[in-house]
Design goal:
mainly alpha; 12 helices; binds protoporphyrin IX containing FE
């Protein structure tokens, strides 16, 4: 569902017409400039920084801790473990705390800021709760009751090579994995899709050059040639 849903939604985004020239100005006037702005946006969350420092702080901490945590998880899916994956292990270990702290900050603002509380739907709370629960169950395995990660790895490698292996029946592990399954199912149909969505946002990817180059969507160009050809 994750892969199929993502492919479906991304195709939908990619085929949605963008008839207007609507870059958010001030916008770069060259393609290179747009690429650079994207990089700043993805790595630094630039526009969020300009908009709201608290959301930026918690959002940035959460996303980068999540990245580290996920990269650290790669070791369950590859054998032998790549050098850089081994290198980041200790950082990913503590990033779990930063991830949950960032999430709790983002969640707190939905209760404490009246404007945010007003626009928060149950799904906003549930998604935060889901991510917090995944983080907390992960941390519980890392810091409280360890699970047999060698067996976990054997299970996941077995899944990938069609060689079924037993999964440890540890309740915390099963909760962690069950919640991850729920996350994978809702991801393509929720606002969590903002990650790929960013790349399909005309106000972000368009170059600010309407005077130098006329913006003409392919389907609009076709209408024009049809009109000329048919003498309408
Ligand atoms: C199939 C996918 C996943 C598997 C097999 C898995 C498995 C595990 C295991 C076994 C641990 C304990 C590590 C240890 O004892 O050192 C752990 C920790 C953790 N997991 Fe997952 N997990 C998965 C997906 C995720 C996802 C998608 C997230 C975040 C959204 C996540 C967040 C965490 C966190 C925050 C920790 C604690 C910090 C750490 O040890 O890295 N996990 N996970």
């Amino acid at each position: 569902m994750l892969l199929g849903g993502l492919a479906y939604k991304i195709t939908q985004y990619a085929t949605t017409p963008a008839p207007l020239k609507i870059p958010t100005t001030p916008a770069p006037t060259t393609r290179g400039g747009v690429v650079l702005r994207f990089l700043r946006e993805i790595v630094l969350f630039e526009t969020l920084f300009k908009a709201n420092k608290w959301i930026w702080l918690f959002g940035w901490v959460f996303h980068f801790a999540l990245l580290l945590v996920l990269l650290r998880h790669l070791r369950y899916f590859i054998q032998p473990v790549w050098g850089w994956v081994a290198f980041i292990q200790p950082y990913g270990y503590y990033a779990g705390f930063a991830m949950v702290a960032g999430l709790l900050g983002l969640w707190a603002r939905r209760f404490l800021v009246p404007r945010m509380r007003y626009i928060s739907a149950p799904s906003d709370h549930l998604m935060l709760a889901l991510l917090v629960a995944i983080g907390v169950s992960g941390l519980a395995m890392s810091f409280i009751g360890r699970t047999d990660i060698v067996a976990v790895k054997a299970f996941f490698l077995g899944l990938m090579y069609f060689d079924w292996q037993p999964l440890p029946a540890d309740p915390v592990l099963l909760i962690h994995l069950g919640l991850v399954l729920i996350l994978m199912v809702i991801f393509p149909f929720s606002k969590l899709l903002h990650a790929p969505g960013m790349f399909f946002s005309p106000s972000r990817y368009q170059v600010d050059n309407p005077r130098e180059r006329r913006h003409l969507a392919p389907w609009a160009a076709k209408l024009e040639t049809d009109a000329e050809g048919g003498g309408r």
